[in-house]
Design brief:
Layout lengths: L3 H5 L24 H6 L4 H9 L1 H4 L4 H12 L2 E4 L7 H12 L4 H6 L11 E5 L3 H7 L7 E5 L9 H13 L4 E5 L2 H5 L3 H15 L3 E5 L8 H13 L4 E3 L11 H18 L4 E3 L7 H15 L11 E3 L2 H14 L12
Helix pairs in contact: 3-13, 5-14, 5-15, 9-11, 11-12, 12-13, 13-14
The chain binds glyceraldehyde-3-phosphate (G3H).
Glyceraldehyde-3-phosphate binds next to strand 8.
Catalytic activity: 2-deoxy-D-ribose 5-phosphate = D-glyceraldehyde 3-phosphate + acetaldehyde
Pathway: Carbohydrate degradation; 2-deoxy-D-ribose 1-phosphate degradation; D-glyceraldehyde 3-phosphate and acetaldehyde from 2-deoxy-alpha-D-ribose 1-phosphate: step 2/2
Organism: Hartmannibacter diazotrophicus
């Protein structure tokens, strides 16, 4: 089987992850309301752009296996359920450390490479459990915070929650914004809130969850993306996974255009995390292609691209198994968590 790296030009890690995102933080900038108010998003052109993507961009065989393996390294392996337990979180962490079976990696010429997921993502209650279970692996723990998923607890409680997760060892904090600020066009309030969240995170990298399914228009999505980046978000993330509509390719296009505009203006690279409902290998390939086309190859690395998903890994492993053995196995043979 061809070397996946050579087949695609994708880079794979030689050494274990470092336990934290080594990319320089986004320092943010002053709120530029004129810029925010001036943004537009052409909905129908955007729809046309993403509609043609699946047909235009397919990769086959070795190249597809390489792209899927790359996707594994970008997964924030997630459990965010009311019935989560320490045992479930420990199982998830074991899967994060060894996301693809050894025989599959061997057949792909990747045995011995430290292939892990990008992070494990849990509620605050399970941060310490995950940190302990992942000790020595270098895999960061991400905590969802600020009254996830609705974000309607008092502001000072949100800041305390972030601080508690950082104290327990979370290296990444996924905050939720107050949707009301976007729906009422109160950009100063959104900026101030995000600034406070970033400060409470200390050294932990902060991902801003916009809950795009709640924001009514794609123009609002672009505006909220810009304001969060101006306030220092290191990543912008689509969804909690709990809104009526979660990640889509169209909303991704809108957010990637905002990341591109912010990069052109400031030189700062902000990461992107689609989340919610991404469960098939075919889906994630489309997100990767859109990332590459809109932002370039550099944005395919786990320090700039994560996908928040609870069941995607099982399908990727199934597709990789099919690639190396020619057979599909049942989903239940690839349990996650
Ligand atoms: O941030 C991650 C999402 O909550 C995961 O959503 P999912 O369970 O639909 O994959």
């Amino acid at each position: 089987m061809a070397d996946p790296a050579r087949a695609t030009g994708l880079a794979f890690p030689e050494t274990a992850p470092k336990g934290h995102n080594a990319l320089p933080r986004n320092p943010g900038m002053a709120l530029d309301e004129a810029w925010v108010r001036s943004v537009r998003f052409n909905h129908s052109a955007g729809e046309r752009r993403v509609a043609t993507l699946p047909g235009r961009r397919t990769v086959k065989k070795d190249a597809q296996a390489a792209w899927l393996l790359k996707a594994v390294t970008c997964i924030d392996l997630t459990t965010l359920s009311g019935d989560d337990t320490p045992e479930r979180v420990k199982r998830l962490c074991a899967k994060a450390k060894s996301p693809v079976r050894h025989d599959i990696l061997e057949a792909l010429g990747m045995a011995g490479r430290p292939i892990t997921t990008g992070a494990v993502c849990v509620y605050h209650r399970f941060v310490a459990t995950a940190v302990e279970a992942l000790a020595g692996s270098g895999i960061p723990v991400a905590a969802v915070s600020t009254g996830f998923p609705a974000g309607l607890v008092p502001h000072d409680v949100k800041l305390k929650e972030i601080e508690a997760s950082v104290r327990d060892g979370a290296a990444e904090i996924d905050i939720v914004i107050t949707r009301e600020h976007v729906l009422t066009g109160n950009w100063q309030a959104l900026y101030d809130e995000m600034r406070d969240f970033r400060a409470a995170c200390g050294e932990a990298h902060v991902k801003a969850i916009l809950a795009t399914g709640d924001l009514k228009t794609l123009r609002n999505v672009v505006k909220a993306s810009l304001v969060c980046m101006m306030a220092g978000a290191d990543f912008i993330k689509t969804s909690t996974g709990k809104e009526g509509v979660n990640a889509t390719l169209l909303v991704t296009l809108a957010m990637l255009r905002a990341i591109r505009a912010y990069h052109e203006q400031t030189g700062v690279m902000v990461g992107y995390k689609p989340a919610g409902g991404i469960s098939s290998a075919k889906d994630i390939l489309n997100y990767q292609f859109l990332m590459r086309e809109e932002l370039g190859r550099r944005w395919l690395e786990p320090d700039l691209f994560r996908v928040g998903a609870s069941s995607l890994l099982a399908d990727i492993e199934r597709q990789l198994e099919h690639h190396v053995t020619g057979r599909y196995s049942a989903h239940h043979r690839h349990p996650v968590g």
